From TrEMBL:
<dbReference type="InterPro" id="IPR012302">
    <property type="entry name" value="Malic_NAD-bd"/>
</dbReference>
<dbReference type="InterPro" id="IPR046346">
    <property type="entry name" value="Aminoacid_DH-like_N_sf"/>
</dbReference>
<dbReference type="Pfam" id="PF00390">
    <property type="entry name" value="malic"/>
</dbReference>
<dbReference type="GO" id="GO:0005829">
    <property type="term" value="C:cytosol"/>
</dbReference>
<dbReference type="GO" id="GO:0046872">
    <property type="term" value="F:metal ion binding"/>
</dbReference>
<feature type="domain" description="Malic enzyme NAD-binding">
    <location>
        <begin position="266"/>
        <end position="526"/>
    </location>
</feature>
<dbReference type="GO" id="GO:0004471">
    <property type="term" value="F:malate dehydrogenase (decarboxylating) (NAD+) activity"/>
</dbReference>
<keyword id="KW-0479">Metal-binding</keyword>
<feature type="active site" description="Proton donor">
    <location>
        <position position="98"/>
    </location>
</feature>
<protein>
    <recommendedName>
        <fullName>Malic enzyme</fullName>
    </recommendedName>
</protein>
<keyword id="KW-0560">Oxidoreductase</keyword>
<dbReference type="GO" id="GO:0006108">
    <property type="term" value="P:malate metabolic process"/>
</dbReference>
<dbReference type="InterPro" id="IPR036291">
    <property type="entry name" value="NAD(P)-bd_dom_sf"/>
</dbReference>
<feature type="binding site">
    <location>
        <position position="265"/>
    </location>
    <ligand>
        <name>a divalent metal cation</name>
    </ligand>
</feature>
<feature type="binding site">
    <location>
        <position position="241"/>
    </location>
    <ligand>
        <name>a divalent metal cation</name>
    </ligand>
</feature>
<comment type="similarity">
    <text>Belongs to the malic enzymes family.</text>
</comment>
<feature type="binding site">
    <location>
        <position position="457"/>
    </location>
    <ligand>
        <name>(S)-malate</name>
    </ligand>
</feature>
C-alpha cells in the first residue's frame, strides 16, 4: 500500500521538487488537484515504464562521466525514479555515481558546474556560518550530515570546493543501500581553500581561491561547524569524509565522545576489513589474537584498520591493549615503523617495534620482505597504493610458513593494488584467502574451480553502521557498536559455508546486508545504554523495518498546510 502525503506544492513548484515530483507517473486525479493537467503529456506512466525509459536514455551516454552527469540531473528532478533505477542496476551504476567515476566529476567540478547541491560553508564567510546553516536546514528534520574538507578525495588529493561531490555521493549511498530518507540528509563542503595549484590558477574555479587554511583558524572553523550540528541536530550522525591525514584521526578523536561522529576512511575501512578478517579467521578456525598482521601503508586507512582490528582483538579475546598492539607490524615508505625512525607520528607510536628486534639485519631500514621472513605473518594487508608492492617473493615467503595466508590488497583504484588477486592465488597454489578494495573477476583454483574475490567495500557496512546509530538516536557511535556491526557482517560470509567461497557477501546484496548490520548496531546501542530511544533489544528489528526508506511513489493529496 502506497503511503499518503499531504503536499502544499502546486504546478511548477511540485514538478521541480525532486522529493515530490513523479513526472509522468502523476495520476489523473493528482494532475487535476495539483494543476498539472496542461503541464504533462496525456499518458500516465508506471514507475517500471519510467525506469525503462531512463535506462534507455542512460545507455545513449557515451562515457562514464556523461552517465554520471545524466544521473546527477535525474537526482535533481525525481528522487524515487533515481533511486529505483540505481537499485535495479546496483552493480553497474554504483561505480558511475561513486568511485571511480565520481572522482573524475569532482576533479572537473568547476567546469561541469550547473547548479548547487547541499551546503557550502566557506572560510571567508565564517562570520555568517550559522545563518547559512539555518537557511538550508530550518524546519527540516536532519538525521545525517556528510561533510568533507576535500583535502584527500578518492585517491586524487586536494579538490577544494569540489568536495561537495563526495559528500553528496556518500549521502546517496546511505539512502540507496542504508535505507536513510534522502530528505533527512545534508551534504556539506567545508571550503577552507585549496593547495591544488591547478585549481588556484583556473579562472573558472568556483571555490575560495586561497591556499588551504590550517592551524588554529582551521580548527576554530571546523569546531564552529560541529557545534552548530550539535546545537540544532543533537541526535544526528555527523560523517567526516576524505579529510587529510593530519586532520582525519585528530578530528574523530576530538569529537567522538561528544556526538555521534563517524569517519568512513578510518572506521568504515577498518570495520569492513575486520568483518572480512573475522570471516577468514572463521575459515581457519583460529582467533584474532592468534594472528600476526602486517599492515603495508600507515596512512589514515592503514592506521584505522590497525586500530579497529586491535580493538576487536581486545574485546573478542579479552587481552590487553598492549598485547593486542604486539600483533601488528606497520610499514610505510621508510620501511617498518620502529622506535628509532625520525618523526614517527604520535598515533603510530603504540605500534612502533623495538630496534633490538631487528639488530640481526645489516640495514637500518627494514623492508616488507625482511618482516615477512622474520615474523611469518598470517595476515598481509595493503593500504599503500604501491602497485605491485606484494611481490612474488613476498607472497611465496608468506605462503611457505602459513597454511591459509590471509591477503588483503585493499588499495584503490585497481591499478594501484599491491598484488593482483590472480597472482596471489597462483603464487600460493590456491591457499590464500583473498579480499580486495576494488572489484576483480574470480581467480582459478588448482582444481579448476572459480574462487570469488571478496570486495572489501566500505559500502557493505558503513550505511548500516550509520542507519543503526541514527534509528537508535545513539549519543555516540561506540567501538562496541562498530564491532557488533562487523561481527554481523562476518556472520553472513559465504566462506563460512564453503571455505573456497568469497569472504564477504556479494555487493548486489548490500541493502539486505546493511539492514542486518544496522539491527546489530542498534541492538548494541540499546544494550549498552547509549541509545536515545526507549526500545527493548528484542524490538529493534521490527522498529528498524519501519524506519527504512524505500523509493516508492506515495499518494498525494493537496493541502496548503501540508509538506513542502
Amino acid at each position: 500500500m502506497s503511503p499518503k502525503f499531504q503536499v502544499a506544492l502546486r504546478g511548477d513548484a511540485i514538478l521541480t521538487n525532486p522529493r515530490f515530483n513523479k513526472g509522468t507517473a502523476f495520476t489523473e486525479q493528482e494532475r487535476r488537484d495539483f494543476g498539472l493537467t496542461g503541464r504533462l503529456p496525456y499518458r500516465v506512466n508506471s514507475l517500471n515504464e519510467q525506469c525503462q525509459r531512463a535506462y534507455d536514455q542512460l545507455n545513449t551516454q557515451a562515457t562514464d562521466i556523461q552517465k554520471n552527469s545524466f544521473l546527477q540531473s535525474m537526482k535533481e528532478q525525481n528522487w524515487v525514479l533515481y533511486y529505483t533505477l540505481l537499485l535495479r542496476h546496483l552493480r553497474e551504476l554504483v561505480p558511475i555515481i561513486y568511485t571511480p567515476t565520481e572522482a573524475e566529476a569532482i576533479a572537473k567540478y568547476s567546469h561541469l558546474f550547473r547548479r548547487s547541491e547541499g551546503l557550502y560553508l566557506t572560510f571567508a564567510n565564517r562570520d555568517s556560518m550559522e545563518d547559512d546553516f539555518l537557511a538550508i536546514t530550518k524546519g527540516k528534520d536532519v538525521d545525517l550530515i556528510v561533510s568533507s574538507d576535500a583535502e584527500a578525495i578518492l585517491g586524487i588529493g586536494d579538490q577544494g570546493v569540489g568536495g561537495i561531490g563526495i559528500s553528496s555521493a556518500k549521502s546517496v549511498i546511505y539512502s540507496l543501500i542504508g535505507g536513510i530518507d534522502p530528505s533527512k540528509s545534508l551534504a556539506v563542503t567545508l571550503d577552507v581553500g585549496t593547495d591544488n595549484k591547478d585549481l588556484l590558477n583556473d579562472p573558472l574555479y568556483v571555490g575560495l581561491p586561497h591556499e588551504r587554511i590550517r592551524g588554529q583558524q582551521y580548527d576554530e572553523f571546523v569546531d564552529k561547524f560541529v557545534q552548530l550540528v550539535r546545537k540544532h541536530f543533537p541526535h544526528s550522525l555527523l560523517h567526516f569524509e576524505d579529510y587529510g591525514v593530519t586532520n582525519a584521526e585528530r578530528l574523530l578523536e576530538r569529537y567522538r565522545d561528544n556526538h555521534a561522529v563517524f569517519n568512513d576512511d578510518i572506521q568504515g575501512t577498518g570495520a569492513v576489513t575486520l568483518a572480512c578478517l573475522m570471516a577468514a579467521v572463521g575459515v581457519t578456525k583460529s582467533k584474532l589474537c592468534d594472528q600476526r598482521i602486517i599492515v603495508y601503508g600507515a596512512g589514515s586507512a592503514g592506521l584505522g584498520i590497525t586500530k579497529q582490528l586491535r580493538d576487536a582483538t581486545v574485546t573478542a579475546d579479552n587481552i590487553s591493549v598492549e598485547d593486542a598492539n604486539s600483533k601488528f607490524w606497520l610499514i610505510d615508505k621508510h620501511g617498518l615503523i620502529k622506535d628509532s625512525l625520525p618523526d614517527v607520528r604520535d598515533d603510530l607510536k603504540p605500534f612502533a617495534r623495538k630496534d633490538s628486534e631487528w639488530s640481526d639485519l645489516q640495514s637500518s631500514e627494514v623492508r616488507l620482505l625482511d618482516v615477512v621472513k622474520k615474523i611469518k605473518p598470517t595476515v598481509l594487508i595493503g593500504t599503500s597504493t604501491h602497485a605491485g608492492g606484494f611481490t612474488k617473493e613476498v607472497i611465496e615467503a608468506m605462503a611457505a610458513e602459513c597454511e591459509r595466508p590471509i591477503i588483503f590488497p585493499l588499495s584503490n583504484p585497481s591499478k594501484l593494488v599491491e598484488v593482483h588477486p590472480n597472482d596471489a592465488n597462483d603464487w600460493t597454489k590456491g591457499k590464500a584467502l583473498l579480499a580486495t578494495g576494488s572489484p576483480f573477476p574470480p581467480a582459478k583454483m588448482p582444481n579448476g574451480k572459480d574462487y570469488v574475490i571478496a570486495e572489501c567495500n566500505n559500502a557493505l557496512i558503513y550505511p548500516g553502521l550509520g542507519f543503526g546509530t541514527m534509528i537508535s538516536k545513539s549519543k555516540r557511535m561506540s567501538d562496541t557498536m562498530i564491532i557488533a556491526g562487523a561481527r554481523r557482517l562476518a556472520s553472513l560470509s559465504p566462506a563460512l559455508q564453503d571455505p573456497d567461497n568469497a569472504l564477504l557477501p556479494d555487493f548486489g546484496e548490500a541493502p539486505d546486508v546493511n539492514f542486518e548490520v544496522a539491527v546489530a548496531v542498534a541492538e548494541q546501542a540499546v544494550e549498552e545504554g547509549s541509545a536515545g530511544v526507549d526500545w527493548k533489544k528484542e524490538e529493534v528489528r521490527e522498529k528498524a523495518k519501519l524506519k527504512v526508506w524505500v523509493p516508492l511513489y506515495g499518494e498525494f493529496v493537496y493541502d496548503e498546510n501540508g509538506e513542502k
